[in-house]
Amino acid sequence: MTTVNDTEHSHDLRIGVIGYGARSTLATHAHKPGEGSRVTVVAEPTQRGKDLARERHGGDVTLVDDVDQLLAEHEVDAVMILAPDYAHAEIALKTLGAGIATFSEKPMAIRVEDTDAMLVMAKQKRARLYVGHNMRHMPVIRQMKKIVDSGRIGRVRAIWCRHFVGAGGDFYFKDWHAERAKATSLLLQKGAHDIDVIHWLAGGYTRRVSGIGDLAVYGDITDRRDNTDRRMWDWYDAENWPPTAQKEMNPVIDVEDISMINMTLDNGVLASYEQCHFTPDYWRNYTVIGDAGRIENMGDGGGDQIHIWESRYSGAGRPDAVEVIDRGDGGHGGADPNLVAEFLRFVREGGATDVSAVAAREAVATGVLGAESIRNGGVPYDVPAIPEDVRGYFDSGQA
Fold it and tell me: Hey, which residues does 81 pair with through a beta bridge?
């Protein structure tokens, strides 16, 4: 395993970035020369991505084509995998196999067996693994978590999440996200966030899942185009409305654009998640019901509100208390810079983190089996547990 370079740039961690596309802004939070970390090498196959990396990180950054070249020719202290979802596992098994601390953007992988292989490899090589579930750092989620943990609404008994994906047609149905072979289901790309949050708020993991869903709208659109020569912001148009008027969709569309899953957690909490990609609005609504009250977020950004009901005298629009959601600095309400900061601290020091690799696996497993249920008539599936020795290793901080 490579070690921290103690002579250059005030002991900066040397960070390798693999994939420089839609989530490449995360790498900018790790590039702080002289302040603890710097991006030294970027592996990216496209010239456009290479040019963007050079623009952001300067002339000193080395550009290579792929992870194999990076590992063969360069020493780094940690890597950030920001490649498309279907590439996460293959890349991570190489970096973890080399003993390098690894950040994998979420979802951890698109198959359960790949997530389990990543956990086992990290344990075998004692290589620190961290998954980019940035919503655990979003103010709305952290504030709801604090309320739940305070006991104010009693013991959590149920959680409901409605996810309105108003930009779904532009974000997820014009490139590889629309293909089962490359995404498995949007219960991973989008839903893995929310499944992870449900698990975190509930204090447990899904052990049985069932669902219904459909490709209700976008599959009927015949205007198709191969968009591999473009990126999302090249085709995004906020004026695209209604969803049936979308154009230049991906040639293959076989993932659902509306999905609903029900989950039974290992601690008895019941949960549901609903995701729709053809709504006009774009936000998440969580309801957490305890045996002494409930909370619900009205909006998920800074300045929006969390409503708290604690008595039978309250009602619709009349909560007993209101908490305003904090405004953070940086992407996703400040979640992105805080996520990267926690990863870099973890690389240096180890120990517990708010983000959990075990939880990331459980989110993928729930999403994958939820999609299987949707595609097989709603039959419930049992979610296999992680072996105790593997879970124990990660729960102890990968020590």
Answer: 18, 104
Q: What is the pLDDT of residues 177-203, one digit of tens each?
A: 999 999 999 999 999 999 999 999 999
CB of 263 within 8 A of CB of 271? Answer: yes
Both tokens of residue 166?
């108003």
**DSSP states along 264-298:** EETTS-EEEEEEESS-S--EEEEEEEETTEEEEEE
Task: Give the Cα separation of 51 and 33 in Å (integer).
Answer: 20
Cα–Cα distance, 79 to 17 (Å, whole number)? 6
Per-residue pLDDT at 373 exceeds 50:
yes
CB atoms within 10 A of CB 235: 16
CB 19 within 8 A of CB 82: yes
Query: Cα–Cα distance between 215 and 297 in angstroms, integer?
Result: 28
CATH architecture of 136-336: 2-Layer Sandwich (3.30)
Q: Where are the domains of the chain?
A: 136-336
Going 338 to 341 to 343 to 346, the CA torsion angle's sign is: negative
Triad 138, 143, 146: Cα angle to 5°: 125
Q: What are the tokens at 112? A: 């359960």
DSSP run (H or E) holding 261: strand 258-265
Distances (CA, A) of 75 to 54, 191, 245, 312: 19, 35, 49, 62
H or E element that contains 100:
none
Evaluated on CA atoms 200, 206, 211, 214, the torsion sign reads positive
Sheet order of strands, 13-18 included: 62-64, 37-43, 13-18, 78-81, 101-105, 129-132
| Helix or strand holding residue 136 (H, E) | none
- pLDDT tens-digit series, residues 15-37: 999 999 988 999 999 999 999 99
The number of angstroms, rounded, from the C-alpha of 35 to the middle of its chain's C-alpha atoms is 27
Token code pair at residue 289:
């019901």
